[in-house]
């Protein structure tokens, strides 16, 4: 299995961390992003992610960083993707962006390539409908930070076959992950629950009831959360949280998913969390 080539499309927060984990497990990786500046920064992002994972996860440093980096090719175009056995799509949480990527990949990729669709909230059945063979696609909701979190939510689309499910579970287990396979509806389990919490935490700050620090302290000390909801929102990226809330709201037409205006204002101001150096906290 380890002689397989894995193409990772989108080199943002999730793409870089996933490339690190996949290359660390021994696979050859192509990491592609359409933004030249993102690809130029990606090696440094991966190095930082590795150092942080070594600090947070015992044994992570057993595979030296230079060996991992040698296994990753950084690309702005799609060259090499036609040989990939597994394609992990990690582009922006926006249906039109993902649709455009699938149309492009469909021209190039092997017909038997296995597609892992990494989305926070969008229905996997809907995303898979943009691929020529939706039977070979399955949702793979990796958790952030990827090297530290072993649980992966795996979401079966309407057409996903049992063979696709088995192959993807075997691939994820080869990375040391613990997949939990569930059915498909927008937001799945994790984000239907977690985005309600992050959104309501933002409303509490907006209403002047408590500061971000106080909200997070209450959830950590009172409910044994490892991270507070607003620290988590900053880690995910407030832009991604807002995109996901919009998907949940549009999908269920339920006002409980309406996006907190403070979150939208912070995104408009460029305060997207850790990735921009400022969110509910300064980094
Ligand atoms: N951030 C998280 O904590 C988290 C957790 C789980 C799942 N996800 C999901 O993973 C996916 C990626 O999230 P992220 O946080 O890495 O986002 P991000 O904004 O950090 O990165 C997305 C990347 O996709 C690239 N991109 C956009 N359109 C492209 C195209 N047409 N071709 C190639 N590259 C393109 C962008 O340049 C950007 O670098 C999203 O669907 C998100 O919902 C995110």
Describe this structure as you would to a colleague.
Residues 81-108 form a coiled coil. InterPro entries: 3-OHacyl-CoA_DH (IPR022694), 3-OHacyl-CoA_DH_NAD-bd (IPR006176), 3HC_DH_C (IPR006108), 6-PGluconate_DH-like_C_sf (IPR008927), 6PGD_dom2 (IPR013328), NAD(P)-bd_dom_sf (IPR036291). Belongs to the 3-hydroxyacyl-CoA dehydrogenase family. Residues 187-283 form the 3-hydroxyacyl-CoA dehydrogenase C-terminal domain. This protein is an alpha/beta fold and 283 residues long. The protein has 2 domains: 5-183, Rossmann fold (3-Layer(aba) Sandwich); 192-276, Orthogonal Bundle (N-(1-d-carboxylethyl)-l-norvaline Dehydrogenase, domain 2), CATH 1.10.1040.10. The chain is built from 11 helices and 8 strands. It has helices at residues 13-24, 36-56, 65-70, 95-108, 124-128, 162-174, 190-206, 212-223, 229-236, 238-252, 261-268, and strands spanning 5-9, 28-32, 72-75, 86-89, 114-117, 137-141, 151-156, 178-183. The model has no long low-confidence stretch (mean pLDDT 96).
